[in-house]
Specification:
Layout lengths: L2 H21 L3 E8 L2 E12 L4 E2 L6 E4 L2 H14 L26 H5 L24 H8 L14 H15 L3 H13 L10 H4 L6 E5 L2 E5 L6 H4 L1 E3 L1 H12 L3 E2 L2 E2 L3 H7 L16 E2 L4 E5 L2 E10 L2 E8 L4 E7 L6 H12 L4 H4 L1 H12 L1 E4 L6 E7 L3 E7 L3 E10 L3 E6 L7 E8 L2 E8 L2 E7 L1
Antiparallel strand pairs: 1-2, 1-14, 2-3, 4-7, 5-6, 8-9, 10-11, 11-12, 12-13, 13-14, 15-16, 15-22, 16-17, 17-18, 18-19, 19-20, 20-21, 21-22
Helix pairs in contact: 1-11, 2-5, 2-6
Length: 450
């Protein structure tokens, strides 16, 4: 391993160690890769707390929605062979969504989450107690009646990927998990990856999942049910094979997996973009979330299920990627993945990952501020997702403020009350400490950190 690789590996281990402790994660595994193979592979903590078994880069995890890039690749292989029409009516293949409101839903619309079907909570259908005894596909079909026809945007739908699993079976004849195994996982060299949940009990290096309940970590066992939308079991090292297929234009080690033009479509924006507050372009390709990172395209996916989280991110321009998984659901795996990408690119995570920068800023500005002679006191406290709460003591006023402008030594948060005004909380670094200029309409107060 070269000096730079050692430095990158050390930085990754250091960052992961701090992050794991902050987020109370039992175990985390991560691999940085390029199109040639693995650059850095590491595991920290425990894949099973009770036995103390260590997490490794080869630990099998329930990677949940990282199933979608794999299932999309399976469908695209059928399209590549001419067995499915990308623009074809899904109802011509499987009679599940053949009579929904509006125009017929196409295969492409399901692949890109752009069918207009809103979130259908299909992953929770078995736990819903409303007196109806609906099977999974009945639930998906019923929810499709809420299809939105008056807007054009990316709307993530697990149900759509359950239907794509049915599509594979209808066209090929093999069960989707067998087809995906034989036509995608095996050619990619993902030999231990599977849709069989028993692998988590029989493999020698597999996670035990955990969730937080009343402040304590409790064991969560995945026993199947997430299907083609989220049932994949894999390791970060094996997931790099999927990422390398993207980096090498549809090939892995000289083996052609998919036509390069179809692969390019899969890893570029195909859905309408999401509305964003920072003017970034975010949406979906075919099985991949499409966004921006370090002024270039990022193809990625997040996976989360009760007991585990996972992430894969690929930077085709830089020829780099990261795959990771952890045995707890909740902590921000996508933020962690982007932080590791930043380190792999030789940069500081806070300089490239907005969520990390905001977290640092929120920690910096949290505290108590006093006006002249302490005539007014304002308490600033962190709220989830980069927000802060401002409480003006003695005035029975508490508001939540959103980040408006984040600089190197000036941080502005805003509140938009119902009267049309714009309130601003501007924090400025001074020689004597932080200063808060709080403007609430016509009232502006200067306060200093106590």
């Amino acid at each position: 391993m070269g000096e730079r690789a050692r430095t990158t590996a050390d930085r990754i281990d250091s960052f992961l160690g701090d992050w794991r402790e902050d987020e109370d994660v039992p175990g985390v595994s991560a691999v940085v890769f390029d199109e040639q193979g693995v650059r850095v592979a590491t595991g920290l903590g425990e894949r099973e707390v009770e036995s103390g078994a260590p997490a490794t880069p080869d630990t099998l995890y329930s990677v949940a929605s990282l199933s979608k890039p794999v299932v999309a690749l399976a469908v695209l292989r059928l399209i590549d062979r001419g067995e499915i029409d990308l623009d074809g009516d899904i109802g011509a293949y499987v009679p599940i969504l053949d009579d929904v409101p509006g125009d017929p839903i196409t295969v492409e619309e399901l692949l890109s989450h752009s069918s207009g079907i809103p979130r259908d909570f299909s992953a929770l259908h078995g736990t819903i107690d409303d007196g109806q005894d609906l099977g999974l596909l009945e639930h998906v079909r019923g929810a499709a009646d809420q299809r939105l026809l008056d807007r054009d945007r990316y709307m993530y739908s697990n149900g759509g990927y359950f239907v794509l699993g049915e599509l594979i079976e209808a066209v090929d004849g093999r069960p989707y998990d067998r087809y995906v195994g034989e036509e995608v996982l095996d050619p990619l060299g993902m030999e231990r990856s599977t849709f069989d949940p028993d692998a988590l009990r029989t493999d020698d290096d597999a996670m035990t999942g955990y969730a937080e309940r009343d402040g304590e970590l409790v064991v969560k066992t995945y026993d199947g049910g997430a299907g083609s939308a989220g049932g994949l079991i894999s390791s970060p090292r094996e997931l790099t094979r999927l990422g390398r297929c993207v980096l090498d234009g549809g090939e892995v080690e000289g083996s052609r997996i998919l036509d390069s033009d179809l692969l390019a479509k899969a890893t570029n924006l195909q859905s309408p973009p999401l509305p964003t507050s920072d003017d970034s372009r975010r949406g979906y390709g075919y099985g991949w979330e499409i966004g921006e990172f370090a002024e270039q395209l990022l193809a990625s996916h997040l996976g989360g299920i009760d007991g585990a989280s996972a992430y894969i991110g690929v930077l085709p321009k830089d020829g780099l990627g990261v795959a990771l998984a952890l045995n707890r659901h909740g902590p921000p795996a996508a933020t962690l993945g982007q932080a590791l990408l930043a380190i792999a690119c030789g940069e500081e995570p806070a300089d490239r990952v907005r969520a990390i920068k905001l977290s640092e800023v929120v920690e910096t500005v949290s505290g108590t501020y006093g006006a002249y002679r302490n005539a007014e006191t304002v308490v600033v406290e962190p709220v989830r997702m980069g927000l802060i709460e401002l409480t003006v003591e003695g005035f029975a006023l508490s508001v939540t403020a959103s980040p408006e402008e984040i600089g190197d030594d000036r941080y502005v948060f805003s509140v938009r009350p119902g009267d049309g005004a714009l309130w601003l909380a501007e924090f400025r670094e001074t020689e004597t400490g932080l200063e808060l200029v709080l403007s609430m309409g016509k009232w502006t107060t200067v306060l200093t950190e106590q």
